[in-house]
Fold each of these.
Amino acid sequence: MDADHVPSEITSVLLTESQIQERLAEIAAQVDTDYAGRDLLLVGVLKGATLVMADFVRHMKSHVHMDWMAVSSYGSGTQSSGVVRILKDLDTDIAGRHVLVVEDILDTGLTLSWLLKNLGSRGVASVEVFALLRKPEAVKVPVSPRYVGFDIPNVFVVGYGLDYNERYRNLREICVLDPWVYGG
Ligand code: PRP
């Protein structure tokens, strides 16, 4: 689905499909270099990171392993609750592994700071973060991702994996949601 298919629900296109893909290719090349000679495990955070992961790994030129975690912090609203729950844990024992967490968005930082503590307590060789999007103005808990796709303003964005009430994840672009959709 494109933004053109839901024009009344979208205020603007923040990042086009080609901007996203170009940036993913740059970061994939950087990760290939940084982890050369090491066995890398990418951990995607469901569900938002599914599209990032799918495209990101196809830009990479090295072997990678993938695993997935599902955590919940938002529920169905637009504000972070601060309560993080594991809905699905990793299938992999990550002790001694080099782990790169793949996230669609770093908003308040509550989810990632919790996740980094959790993964860090499992005896990893290293754990770093790749967040496609970061909202510097929204941060409540400082997290330092090693790789960031784009810094964006503090607006409610959907598309390319990001949802509102489970809709819009299949938009090709990252778009600003019109506030009438969520009653704002
Ligand atoms: C989103 C996103 C991050 C988190 C970021 O997940 O994928 O995991 O919120 O927000 P924070 O920095 O304020 O913690 P969400 O809980 O909406 O689940 P989803 O990926 O299934 O949409």
Amino acid sequence: MPRSTWNPCDGAVVLAPSLLAADFGNLAGAIKDLEGSGTERLHVDVMDGAFVPNFTFGTDTVRALKKLTDLPLELHLMIVEPERHLETFAKAGADAITVHYEVSPHLHRTLTEIRKLDCRAGAAINPSTPASCLDDVLEWIDLALVMTINPGWGGQKLIPRMLNKVEQVRGSIERQGLPTEVEVDGGVDATNARSCVDAGANVLVAGSAVFSHADGPAAGGRAVLEAAGAAEANR
Ligand code: DX5
Ligand code: ZN
């Protein structure tokens, strides 16, 4: 799908499986299983060992993923100085690029650059960052990502208080009359997906809940979407 035609800002509740929890030895198999199961995008966590302690994917992996699938790739950059690498990631095949508020002193400029590269632009905030930090850039983003854990690893428990922040971000978006998506990332599973949607999230990132499901990733994804009441929400 050419990324310029990917315009899913219709408020539908969707799942973004995080490949961080997939079997890295068989990414192709995991993606095949997810394709055609209601998954509309893949969440790719890029970590640099500086902004967060962990290392994960780089541009080569993004390039390889692009060859494996037509699903849009949404990159979550957990790296310092993200503005230095936007073009490289866009050329590697990113359809959306999300940068962190905490490492972007010129966030407005960075977001504008992302859109110029024909990618959807996202801004993420850590658990200790207030919702209001996004208020003045909402106009320039397609995706507001509220971290529901501290970034760095999958498999953590969602911090319930973060759902208040999701409500606040959704409230600001509505007050400004924008079509911005609200994404929750970290510890999202079938037990809390409904609360995330009720708080105002419409994009659910899920790693462990999808890839650790006994019946495979497609079944894990369906379980999260069903628990979220996606079918009713999207009617
Ligand atoms: C963590 C990442 C998340 C993570 C989600 O820093 O941003 O995307 O992989 O994984 P789970 O769903 O296992 O918390
Ligand atoms: Zn993520």
